[in-house]
Amino acid sequence: GAKLIAFPEGFIPGHPLWYHFHPATGPTSRDMALRLFKNSVEIPGPQTEALCQAAKEVGAYVVMGLCEKRPGTFGTMFNSQLFIASTGEIMGKHQKLTPTVGERLVHMGGFGDTLRAFDTEFGKIAGLICGESSNPLSLFTLIAEGTMILIISWPNLPGRKMLNRADRAVMAGRGCAFMSKAYILNAVGAMNDEMKAMLAYTEEDKAFLANDALTGGSSVISPSGELLVGPLGHEEGILYADLDLERSVEEKLIHDLAGHYNRPDVFCLKVNREAPSLYLREKWYGQQDQERQHPESSDCREAPDADL
Known about the structure:
By secondary structure, the chain is α/β, with parallel strands linked by helices. The chain has helices at 27-39, 46-58, 136-144, 165-180, 193-199, 203-209, 246-254; strands at residues 4-6, 61-69, 77-84, 90-95, 124-129, 147-154, 183-188, 219-221, 227-229, 284-285, 306-307.
């Protein structure tokens, strides 16, 4: 069986595609956004425990695209990839740093502490989500961390006047492969008739959604940019590939953007890997009135005492 399994963007519970079709403040969009929140996943939580158990049972690493719900809040979600070890433990997650178009109505921008690679016995793995694959700074960060397998998760459907999902994933994946010398796993979502019927708002929408070539198309790309397998068709399916990781080494000996093929004396990328505190309570001491104090809280990271 597979040693590494990758899933599309927002595979659990779904992706906010309705903003391509329905008015953002209309009743349908508001209802679907509420349903998305109710079914989103806390990390860790009961849903991730089930995923971890499944990964352990099959002995595979899993990268799952999901809508992450921030614990203890009512409305804050992230577009995330969850990384699970073959032992059934959560390795970490990646949150999409910048939501794209309609995603911004329901997804918060991710934090820098989730932009990283994860160790496995066969090399480092990392992830990017959809449009992030075109961000050279995000990609370089993962190259510099030694990524050998990069999972790019894609949603079910492109916007209008865009390349179909399969062609877009191959185009972006080949560019990422050439720059990173990593294997690229493009995990692309598919659609069924029920989803299409739910999304269509006008006759024009129905005609657009009837084009099956727009959706699906998972693929695997070599470190040299060669298309190894795929693209998969528009229906759900499983794509397998055997990866020879020495090919990544061979390619990097020629062209290593985070090593000998760079000029650190000319270029330097700074990455903030700290997660910000969204809520901070400080101690307040009045200069005139020593009794005016705001009590400490261990709710989050404490700030230094401030004389105000």
